[in-house]
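Lecture notes, continued. The same structure-token format from the folding unit now serves as the input rather than the output. Read the line below as a description of shape only.
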């Protein structure tokens, strides 16, 4: 049997347990969150780390306020249509929301 098919089946057997969205439910979830979010990093406007933090804040807010079953489909709709980005008290203060 092809090794790639075997590997794909092995990974698929883990189902949703490999989704980054379940990280907060586990003790080691803080590590990737700190890695991506860098809470102690300088917040220089326009820096890569500031942009990354704001993007994560924006996505987290959308997940917290909207039903999300399929991330790219459901979040894309929120980003593209309506006034959520400008009227929500959190996302309206996130600079990258306009981009």
């Amino acid at each position: 049997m092809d090794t790639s098919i075997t590997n794909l089946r092995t990974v698929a057997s883990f189902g949703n347990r490999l989704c980054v969205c379940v990280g907060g439910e586990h003790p080691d979830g803080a590590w990737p969150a700190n890695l991506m979010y860098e809470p102690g990093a300088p917040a220089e406007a326009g820096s890569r780390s500031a942009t990354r933090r704001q993007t994560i804040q924006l996505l987290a807010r959308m997940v917290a306020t909207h039903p999300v079953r399929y991330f790219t489909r459901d979040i894309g709709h929120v980003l593209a249509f309506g006034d959520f980005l400008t009227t929500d008290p959190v996302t309206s203060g996130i600079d990258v929301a306009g981009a």
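Point for the exam: The first helix runs from residue 3 to 12.
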